[in-house]
Amino acid sequence: MSSYFTRALEALKPNSEWAVTGDQYSRLVWQDESQTKPTEEEIEIKIAEIKYQEEINVYQEKRKLEYPDWGDQLDQIYHSGIDVWKVDVKAIKDKYPKQIMDATELQKRKDAAVFKMQKRYYEIATARLAQYELANGVK
What we know:
Elements: H1 4-12, E1 18-20, E2 28-30, H2 40-56, H3 58-66, H4 70-80, H5 82-95, H6 103-129, E3 132-133, E4 137-138
Antiparallel strand pairs: 1-2, 3-4
């Protein structure tokens, strides 16, 4: 499975041309001449959205594990009727209800992703400044 970074790039700029080593924006080489390079902030926001969507979609995997295979379902419909099959399927759907993204929660996660990115750059800048004695110049 591709990384969240590459999945975000693919979602933001479908069919674009780029190369990246690892999951760092600084290692992204933009080769596409028809689409503009997304900003690091756009990528971080898309990653937050992808992760949240994955959390939401957990109900689908749980349902899949409980549904009988198609052959058994068709056999049940043939022998017991579609109404019995519907009752069985509804029980699983009720056990694992469909989830949807909450706009407020999504925005909270996007804001947190941007804050985390900004904090990372702040820490890098602070560490770089700590190497200097401001009153006297470079150590």
